[in-house]
Amino acid sequence: MISVGLWHLLQIFTCFLLLTQSFSKDDRKTYIVYMGDYPKGVGFAESLHTSMVESVLGRNFPPDALLHSYKSLNGFVARLTKEEANRMRGMDSVVSVIPDRIHKPQTTRSWDFLGFPENVQRNIIAESNTIVGVIDSGIWPESDSFNDAGFGPPPKKWKGICQNFTCNNKIIGAQYFRTKGFFEKDDIKSPIDTTGHGSHCASTAAGNPVRSASLLGFGSGTARGGVPSARIAVYKVCWATGCDTTDILKAYDAAIADGVDILSVSVGATQLTHNKYFKDVHAIGAFHAMKKGILTSTSADNLGQLGPYSTSKFAPWLLSVAASTIDKKFFTKIQLGNGKIYEGVSVNAFDLHNIQHPLIYAGDASIIKGNSSNARYCQENALDKALVKGKILLCDNIPYPSFVGFAQGAVGVIIRSNVSLAVSDVFPLPAAHITHNDGAQIYSYLKSTSNPTATIFKSYEGKDPLAPYIDSFSGRGPNKITPNILKPDLAAPGVNILAAWSPIAPISGVKGDKRISKYNILYGTSMACPHVTAAAVYIKSFHPNWSPAVIKSALMTTATPMRDILNHGNAEFGYGAGQINPMKAVKPGLVYDATEIDYVKFLCGDGYSGFMDKITGDNKTTCTPANTGSVLDLNLPSFALSTTRSKYISATFSRTVTNVGSAKSIYKATVTTPPSSSSLNIKVVPDVLVFSSLEEKMSFTLKIEGSINNANIVSSSLVWDDGTFQVRSPVVVYVPP
Ligand SMILES: *[C@@H]1O[C@H](CO)[C@@H](O)[C@H](O)[C@H]1NC(C)=O
Ligand SMILES: *[C@@H]1O[C@H](CO)[C@@H](O)[C@H](O)[C@H]1NC(C)=O
Ligand SMILES: *[C@@H]1O[C@H](CO)[C@@H](O)[C@H](O)[C@H]1NC(C)=O
Ligand SMILES: *[C@@H]1O[C@H](CO)[C@@H](O)[C@H](O)[C@H]1NC(C)=O
């Protein structure tokens, strides 16, 4: 793999998509043929798939044409020509045919910041019977975060395996998936984590508390997972070159069959352009997981800088998690030859001992004389090594930095940033991000003298008083597939997170960076996702029978509302219902439940009628009028309505809440509406709900009338309040950007 920075590495996991497909000698490529669920009463049968391949490729199809049969869901991996794939797509029993693609790779003050202390009241026995499935890059088994001291044998229900890996009573399952085969020398044929990402995510969710953990002294404290007694099952799908679609679905398939309780998936989008749920492996995997009572928590991707529609996890049956900041931040000072000092951000453990080094503007170090257009951004291969070596580089707005200047032998790098300085990157050399204005001043100093010099100091830890907020990178809604379903769902800490790391992976993610550490500081929606996973396990440990939708509802209706502090203009499309509050989520008062039939009704109403019998595996389930509902009536704990600017809106949502608070209780509805939207009238009928027992259900409607005036997004909320519990749902009316 080309030497890429940590940012790149994070992207492989939770974001980018290389448009590379898996090539082979002939013109066959790898596809997933998805057929829904196995017919009820029939179950797994590979012969189903053999006959499918036979009918398209003929009786004597090559032995490597049918590569794999999924078991928890009906589908298989096949090598097909484009024409064969099209024929497969046209077959009656096929829901979708998905080309294999590479997903580019997309701690723990954060729990205290969330108000979730280490000594929180726990249901230890239930927690230790809970299995967290982590689909990622594997795990570092020797980390103290995964030591099994004090753990009993795996829960009886566990059916998973340990593949070329020694499990313990903490890591109870570990498998790897690689349809393509092994050819990268950096890959290890086992669930061992060579990149660090998987260990980081797994320990944030369920790692043991480890005292005095730090990254080279930074972020020092107790690194701990949210549910340290829970068990971990690892499904490795991400390799040196990224994570492949077929393998991601294999991991969901195995995890469901193995009996995990919650799935944590900090892996990138299938493809940002997919327009239907059943062409997306995350939606498919999470759908089949939901049917078995397993909630899937996913990262909302790291492409926030692209603006709206930069998340890709849209399905209503999964949780998509945005990344919020915590109050911890790492600052790095820079001093110029003229004595002036600037403050930037990074996690810089290097010490230049206050020695001034020559400073050069990257635009003046171009390998193409007189053309600075690539060099000024310090793009790889654009810099002239001879000019850069031994100097500190000043670069303009690098979107994905961390490796710049390292290969060229620079002493350090100063990066002029055009976005907020919320995240502190780890670089393989002394480096810092600075503001655009400071960059302009450093540039003019550089141009004003014949011998410009600078030095970069070791970082120090400070506070970010604005936290929590959503930084630029965190993926945004609205929902590309169903505009009237809010995405992302909620936010959790995903910036400057300290968690376990693989000591064979460079801490900056840059090859050649020889520094190793058992703990690392990372940012990304990848880091936010396992916080929500843990919170979901925590809820489940008190309420083992709650459905995925109820757990999701509890997390969303108790979340702390957020504000658009950086003025990105995304509001709820940045943070959903707000930042999770795990302790509150255990006692939500009322919950919004939804089961398979509710999603079937929604899908029937949303144009998916052709294959409802297939995805349910029940040939009696078709989209009859009784089975067809409006998206506005899908029982979600959030309300989103897309409209046009001049249109007069009159829309009614139906919801049903279940009482899980106090048996006898009276809830009153309050709707808050910001003044700028005064022409919107939001009404709840009835606005009082009187419960006389637990588990009692009550229905209501929420009607929105009026028009949106000049705003792009009108944010409001509905709160059901009985004096003890406040059950809050975001209500968003918007004009699609
Ligand atoms: C098992 O894993 C080790 C690394 O732990 C690797 O070197 C070896 O090749 C793997 N063996 C097999 C048979 O996959
Ligand atoms: C400078 O280089 C860039 C990238 O190689 C190229 O697109 C551009 O045309 C060049 N500009 C000039 C003035 O040569
Ligand atoms: C920041 O700079 C990058 C690279 O030049 C550019 O693509 C991006 O649009 C800029 N963003 C803002 C907010 O100005
Ligand atoms: C529905 O499925 C059952 C069990 O798989 C099967 O016996 C029955 O013939 C099917 N009915 C139709 C109409 O396909």
From TrEMBL:
Localization per record: Secreted
Keyword Transmembrane helix: no
A Pfam family per the record: Inhibitor_I9
Family per similarity comment: Belongs to the peptidase S8 family.
Species assigned in the record: Glycine max
A single GO molecular function term of this UniProt record: serine-type endopeptidase activity
Protein name: Cucumisin
Keywords, alphabetical: Hydrolase, Protease, Secreted, Serine protease, Signal
Signal peptide positions (record): 1-24
Record-annotated Subtilisin-like protease fibronectin type-III domain positions: 633-733
One of the GO biological process terms: proteolysis
Main location: secreted
PROSITE patterns in the cross-refs: SUBTILASE (PS51892), SUBTILASE_HIS (PS00137), SUBTILASE_SER (PS00138)
Annotated catalytic residues: D136 (charge relay system), H197 (charge relay system), S526 (charge relay system)
Residue stretches making up the Peptidase S8/S53 domain: 128-576
GO CC field: extracellular region
Stretches assigned to the Inhibitor I9 domain: 30-103
CDD domains attached to this UniProt entry: PA_subtilisin_like (cd02120), Peptidases_S8_3 (cd04852)
InterPro entries: Peptidase_S8/S53_dom, Peptidase_S8/S53_dom_sf, Peptidase_S8_His-AS, Peptidase_S8_Ser-AS, Peptidase_S8_subtilisin-rel, Peptidases_S8_3, S8pro/Inhibitor_I9, S8pro/Inhibitor_I9_sf
Keyword Signal: yes
